[in-house]
Amino acid sequence: MLEGIALIAVAGIFLFPFLWMLVTAFKSQSEVLQFPPSWVPEEWRWDNFEAAWNSGPFGRYVLNNIIVAVSILALQLLTGIPAAYAFARFRFKGRGFLFGLLLLALMIPSQVVFLPIYVQMSGWNLVNTLWALILPFGASAFGIFLIRQSFMQIPEDMLEAARLDHASEWTILWRIAVPMSAPAVTTFALFSLIYHWNDYFWPLIMTNQAEMRTLPVGIAMLKETEGMSAWNVLMAGNLMLVVPALLLFVLAQRHIMRAFVYSTK
């Protein structure tokens, strides 16, 4: 009984900001500012979403967001899956040292290294381009670590049987290891897409032109175009940002559970 009450309380703490954003997105500006606040809008204002969309080139923001998030994921999978397989199945000199560096990279936030990367992107004339938002994230230490843990769960006898059938390591990787580790790969793909879909810091420092902005930066700029008191329009914009990420999580929830349950065996 007490555990159930505690779970409900914790869920309420996490759900409250989302519910407040959802309700506020459909209120009028006067109703948003009234006290005490109401949980049900007196009039459902769908035009808040239209106002948020028309406040800037939101179509371009969405397109940039999709290009950046999908391109980063593609690069991370192309670099991370072979690296994870090498760490999991090959024995080579310096493997422990390199894996230690990989774990060290997990502890360093991107905000710490943004300055040298910004200087490098500037030297390559890539600032204010989508490449500056994609290339620095072309490899993921977290993705390599997570997929490597899954590859280590695959029985060695199965891989040896494939080698006896004259299958190359590349064939074994993509036709045996990756399909068997689909939950881990899907989980990492979801985390990567959501992180870079919601990323605000990196696009903010790497771009200063509207056509290169992404959706989180565009929504933050609503404060300038609509005013600090237009919380209904601001929350409508935030809702447009959050809903795709929530849908992705709901669709991939089964794979996430399978990935973490399997990795603990």
Please, could you describe this protein's structure?
This protein has helices at 2-24, 29-33, 47-54, 58-89, 95-106, 110-123, 131-134, 141-151, 156-164, 169-180, 182-198, 201-206, 215-220, 222-226, 231-263. It is mostly helical and 265 residues long. It is globular and about 70 Å long. The model has no long low-confidence stretch (mean pLDDT 84).
Write the layout of secondary structure elements.
Elements: H1 2-24, H2 29-33, H3 47-54, H4 58-89, H5 95-106, H6 110-123, H7 131-134, H8 141-151, H9 156-164, H10 169-180, H11 182-198, H12 201-206, H13 215-220, H14 222-226, H15 231-263
Helix pairs in contact: 3-15, 4-8, 4-11, 5-8, 8-11, 11-15
Task: Please tag this protein with its features.
15 helices, mainly alpha, 265 residues
Output the helix-strand order. Answer: HHHHHHHHHHHHHHH
Q: Report the β-strand fraction as a percent range.
A: under 5%
- Give the proportion of residues in helices: over 70%
Rounded Rg: 23 Å
Number of helices: 15
Average of pLDDT:
84
Question: Tell me about the biggest sheet?
Answer: none
Concise account of the structure shown:
With 265 residues, this protein is an all-alpha fold.
